[in-house]
Amino acid sequence: MLVIILLVFLILFFISMRCLKDIVSQSIAFFFLFYWGVSLVLSNLGLFNLFDVRTSTYLYFLLGVSAFILGMAAVERREKNFFPYAEKISKDLAELALNKFFIVAQIVLTVYLAKYAILSMAIAKVSGKGAMQGGDVAAVLRTVPYLEFIYSVAGNITFNITCPLLMYLILRFQKKYIPRIILCLLFIAVFAIINGGRSLFVIAALYFVITYTCVNKQQKFSFSKEKIIATVILIAVSLVGISFMTQYRDRGNFEVDLETFSESISESGEKVGLYSTLPFVMFDYALKQDYLQMFDGYQFGRATFAGFDIYVTGVLKTFGFDLVNTNVKITHYLQETWVPITNKNTANYAYTGILQHYLDFGLFGIFIFPFVFGLITRYLVFKVQTTGNVFIFLFLSFAFFMAIHSVFTCYFIKTWPYWYFAFLLIGYLKTNQNNRV
């Protein structure tokens, strides 16, 4: 099976380099294929002693990955000369960095969430069990409606705007940006502590890639002294953050010494490999246990868009239609049910984004959803290149992250992304209208 995986990915790399001529599309395709490819190879080699994944199951993953690349390649590039979008995005990000409303919103959120971050660390330290076992403050926040909105919606939206903004400020460093860089780092730190996840640092790295690609005027990879220094600083801060989060999650405390730092980084590396491969075992388990039949057959799009299904069923209930939303029916089940991945260990929730597509339309769903997502992603690339609109850039950045993160899960099953999409759409329409005037 390893030979087949390598062959398919080599073909997909060739297709992407042949059909995707611009650096932005090529970068998205490269990192998407790289992460999926490495994860599948590691899974097939069995380096983490997980249960074996059947050959037929690997074919499902290859179908989904191929569909995304084919979707990107299917969008034809009509424009020969693009708008100078790098300069326009850079200008808009610079204005956003100094926007008083956004600065105030960032400060208010940082201060408000800081008390919950401090509480989370205190509980984790007292329990001695770590953030994920001792006191999951994030789970508590989700039980109170207005706190749920502040943390899940406002917090996530601000985080996904702050990350590319921070990457821009570092890439185009000026002394006047230092207070903004510090504020961005403080917000990310507070949000990460409550979230309790090391994946936030991976998300930040992905935003660095897409931001660098879109604001790079040369449209080819160049490495100036300033960019190298900025990258090294970013990597150093990320490593310290990952070390902190590893100790915080697992033990509830934080020690500053070289040995502990080295152990934490090594442990984090192993966890990244594990979390990048266990979803394949879980998807294979879902097929063996016939989750499709267990959830009463095809969901016809409601599984993939479970986050939006909450709103739809809520509206329908006001008209007398008593429907159970798929978030309760499927997503909660996947979250609460722990399944075996080894003879001793279990895992939950992470079945890859492919599972939701399969539950919607079977094999057709595994192909059609990634294909359409590939189409949309390439369309967003062209939209960025022809308008330089910062809201479209933010949309593309999030689409890039979701594509990579599909190894783990499907982000459309969450509720807050739809608020983010609405925010970006309104921002785009408003700026587009102002430009016409």
Fold blueprint:
Elements: H1 2-19, H2 23-45, H3 55-73, H4 85-97, H5 100-127, H6 137-141, H7 145-171, H8 178-195, H9 199-215, H10 225-250, H11 258-288, H12 291-294, H13 306-318, H14 326-336, E1 339-340, E2 346-347, H15 354-361, H16 363-387, H17 390-405, H18 416-436
Antiparallel strand pairs: 1-2
Strand pairing plus helix content: what structural class? mainly alpha
Q: Given the structure, what is the number of helices?
A: 18
Cα separation of the termini:
58 Å
Largest sheet: 2 strands, antiparallel
Q: What would you call the shape? A: globular
Concise account of the structure shown:
The protein has 437 residues and is mainly α. Helix content is 74%, strand content 1%. The protein is globular, with a radius of gyration of 22 Å.
What this model shows, in words?
There is one protein chain. The chain has 437 residues and is mainly α. The chain has helices at residues 2-19, 23-45, 55-73, 85-97, 100-127, 137-141, 145-171, 178-195, 199-215, 225-250, 258-288, 291-294, 306-318, 326-336, 354-361, 363-387, 390-405, 416-436; strands at residues 339-340, 346-347. It has a two-stranded antiparallel sheet with strand order 1-2. It is globular and about 55 Å long. It starts with a helix and ends with a helix.
